[in-house]
Structures are given as structure tokens and as C-alpha cells.
Design brief:
Elements lengths: L1 H23 L46 E9 L8 E8 L2 E8 L1 H4 L4 E6 L8 E5 L6 E6 L8 E9 L9 E12 L1 E2 L8 E7 L2 E7 L8 E10 L2 E13 L2 E6 L3 H7 L2 E5 L8 E6 L2
Antiparallel strand pairs: 1-2, 1-8, 2-3, 3-6, 4-5, 4-7, 7-8, 8-10, 9-16, 10-11, 11-14, 12-13, 12-15, 15-16
Length: 284
């Protein structure tokens, strides 16, 4: 009996040990398996868009403005008080909004002149300096003014040559005359570009016309008219014909009369086509 009791005790001991071992062992975790069947993924390749043809726009060429004709006037310099020799000359050349002033004097005056300028007023009563001019070298100078020739042809300006800017001694001088520059508008029938220069000269008016020559020996009749461009009225006074691109006429009317009467300058195409007017300009 005693042996059986010991066996029972050992059996209980081993059973307790087995239970303890199972209690301490980690419980295995089961990885859940997806019930979905894995399918291969489809790679989507984006469609290449069909290029839309672009229209090539040809830029519109920018029209180059026709430069205005060059206009010039030459003036004789007069000696100042105490000088008797001819001093020289001045030339004013209009190029759009600029004016080139060229001076040329007699060699005997070269060393005396130290200052040249355009001043308000007249030779012996000149006032404020409007435009200083470059000094003369070897009897000559050229100055470019940032103003139009028309703005100088107002009849109240003069060119003065002095030994110093503020000197009272006047070596040479000339008044800049009153004048009008007229750029031709289209005529009644056609359009020929050109320019007219009208200069007041002691009760008369000097009229210079410039127009591109249409050929060697080409002649265009020109007259003064009343009326309004491009429909001209009656002929008021004939001008010398434009031959080889130029014409000069001294007419017996002061410039003030031409401006007051609102006269026009009309140019005909030729003697063969006298009823075809190619240019017209109002004197104003």
C-alpha cells in the first residue's frame, strides 16, 4: 500500500509539472490568410495625344515712315559796328526735329570770334541766348540743335558772333527771317511727296519748291490757288515750273498776305496731263 501511495504522489507531481510547462509555453499566433486570389496588376500606358498642328503666323511688316525732305536756308552774315568786311555766311538745314547750323567766316575774323549763339531779338538789340553754337575752328563750325527749322523761322531770332558770350561788342550778325515750311499733302488725283519753303524778304516772298524728279528734264507746273486742298479754286499767281525736282520764285506779295488769304500751292503732274493734280499744300 505504501508503494502505491508513493506512485500516486509521483504521478500527481509529474502531471503538475506537465501542466505548468504547457501554461508557460507561448501561444502561437496564426497569420490570417487572405481569401482573395491575387491577380496580376495591369500597367496602364497613357495614350500619346495627337499633336494639334499650330498655325504659323507671319508677322505683319512694320511700315518704315518716309523721312521728311531736307530743307535748308542760307543767310549772309553782316558785319558788326566798326567792321566793314563781309564776315561770311550761315546755313540752317532742317532735318525733321533737328536743325544743323553751319557757320563760315572770313579768315580775318577767325581769331576774333570766341562765341556764337542764337539769341532773341535783332542784331543790335539781341536779348536772351536761345541756343549756344559750337566755337569756330579754322573759320568754320557745325552745331546740331534739337529743334525744328520751323521753330527758328519766327522772325524774332538772330545769330550773333562775339568775342565772348556776354560781350557788348558784336563782330558779325544776321537775323533769321520769318518763314513757313510746307510739306505737300496728296493732290486731287495722285500723291507726289515734296516740300515748299516760303521766306519773307522785304515785302516779297521767296518760294522754293522741292519734289523728287520723275526723270531727267521732267517739268511739273505749279501755281498759287485759293480754295481748300485737295479741291483747288482759282489760280491766284503762277510759280516757276518744277524742273529736275526744284523751283524758285520770288513773288511780289508779303508772306503775311499769303497767310491771311489762306492760299494754297498746287502742283500738276505735267504739261501733257495738266488736269491731274499730284500735290497740294495750305500756306499756314
Amino acid at each position: 500500500m505504501k508503494l502505491d501511495s508513493q506512485k500516486i504522489i509521483y504521478a500527481h507531481f509529474f502531471l503538475a509539472m506537465i501542466v505548468a510547462l504547457f501554461a508557460c509555453a507561448p501561444i502561437p499566433t496564426q497569420t490570417p490568410q487572405s481569401t482573395d486570389t491575387l491577380r496580376p496588376t495591369r500597367t496602364l500606358i497613357p495614350e500619346t495625344p495627337t499633336p494639334i498642328p499650330t498655325e504659323t503666323l507671319t508677322p505683319t511688316p512694320t511700315a518704315t515712315p518716309t523721312p521728311l525732305p531736307t530743307v535748308s536756308i542760307s543767310i549772309t552774315l553782316k558785319p558788326g559796328p566798326g567792321f566793314d568786311a563781309s564776315p561770311g555766311s550761315a546755313e540752317l538745314i532742317g532735318r525733321g526735329n533737328q536743325t544743323e547750323v553751319k557757320l563760315e567766316i572770313n579768315s580775318r575774323f577767325d581769331g576774333l570770334v570766341k562765341s556764337a549763339q542764337i539769341q532773341e531779338g535783332f542784331c543790335l538789340t539781341s536779348g536772351a541766348i536761345k541756343f549756344p553754337l559750337n566755337n569756330l575752328a579754322d573759320g568754320k563750325s557745325t552745331s546740331v540743335l534739337q529743334t525744328s527749322l520751323s521753330s527758328l523761322l519766327i522772325g524774332t531770332l538772330s545769330i550773333n558772333l562775339k568775342p565772348a558770350p556776354d560781350a557788348n561788342t558784336l563782330i558779325a550778325c544776321t537775323g533769321i527771317p520769318r518763314g513757313v515750311i510746307l510739306y505737300f499733302d496728296p493732290g486731287r488725283d495722285e500723291h507726289q511727296s515734296g516740300v515748299a519753303l516760303l521766306i519773307a524778304q522785304e515785302g516779297r516772298t521767296e518760294v522754293t519748291l522741292q519734289m523728287p524728279a520723275s526723270g531727267a528734264g521732267a517739268v511739273r507746273p505749279a501755281q498759287l490757288f485759293d480754295g481748300a486742298c485737295p479741291n483747288l479754286g482759282a489760280v491766284k499767281y503762277p510759280l516757276n515750273n518744277i524742273a529736275d525736282g526744284k523751283s524758285f520764285t520770288s513773288i511780289p506779295f508779303p508772306l503775311t498776305d499769303l497767310l491771311r488769304n489762306n492760299w494754297l500751292i498746287g502742283v500738276r503732274k505735267s504739261f501733257a496731263e495738266p488736269n491731274v493734280f499730284v500735290a497740294c499744300g495750305a500756306i499756314k
